[in-house]
Amino acid sequence: MKTLLTSFFLVLVVFAYSQPVYEWGIYEKPLMISKTNANTINAFENTPESIVSYFYASKIRNDKKWQKVIPALENRSEKLKRNLIKYERWNISRFQLRSKTEFEKNKLWVKIFFEIEYDGQKDSGTDEVTLHLIDGVWIIVGVPT
Predict the structure, then answer these.
(1) Where do the domains of the chain lie, and which CATH numbers do they carry?
(2) Cα gap 51→70, rounded to integer Å
(3) Helices (H) and strands (E) in the chain, counts
(4) Contact 127, 112 (CB under 8 A)
(5) DSSP category for residue 137
(6) Which 3 state secondary structure label does DSSP give 143?
(7) Which of 58, 96, 105, 127 maximizes the CB count within 10 A of its CB?
(8) pLDDT in tens for each of the 145 residues of the chain?
(9) Class of residue 64 by CB neighbours under 10 A (exposed 0-12, middle 13-18, buried 19+)
(10) CA dist., res. 68 & res. 42, Å (int)
(11) Phi-psi label, residue 64: left if phi above 0, alpha if psi -120 to 50, beta otherwise
């Protein structure tokens, strides 16, 4: 019995230490972007925050400018393509940057709060947008659904 408990404890310790620990940087007083102020975000800089803000402001405005900050159609992953199809059925009413972390070199998750309307219902929550730095340019490669 003692050997079994010792083995279990060792497995538990190895598992606990093998899990990646990400340090999330919290955005201080981030602006809530909604239909009333999304039109003020009509350009972007080469930063993850600016790219994500530009993408969701464009989605709120219901224009196609968001396409400037994602890969060209032929370079999009199948998952990104599927998620963008879901976005076509959604009305994104507001969003806010929450935090970010680098999960690999030149690869970030930016956590956002967002509220959507679809099929006559509202839903909201937080999830991560995935960005990669490719040839010196930040680009969104994954959006939450």
Answers:
(1) 23-142 (3.10.450.50)
(2) 9
(3) 3, 6
(4) yes
(5) E
(6) coil
(7) 58
(8) 555 444 444 443 444 444 567 889 999 999 999 999 999 999 999 999 999 999 999 999 999 999 999 999 999 999 999 999 999 999 999 999 999 999 999 999 999 999 999 999 999 999 999 999 999 999 999 999 9
(9) exposed
(10) 12
(11) alpha
**Which amino acid is it at 110?**
V
Which residue spans within the chain are E strands per DSSP?
25-26, 33-34, 91-104, 107-118, 121-134, 137-142
Cα distances from 138 to residues 55, 116, 125, in angstroms, run 12, 25, 24
- Which residue, chain included where needed, has tokens 């806010």? 96
- Work out the widest C-alpha separation in the chain, in whole angstroms: 67
Q: Are 117 and 91 in contact (CB under 8 A)?
A: yes
Q: What six digits make up the tokens of 30? A: 């981030």
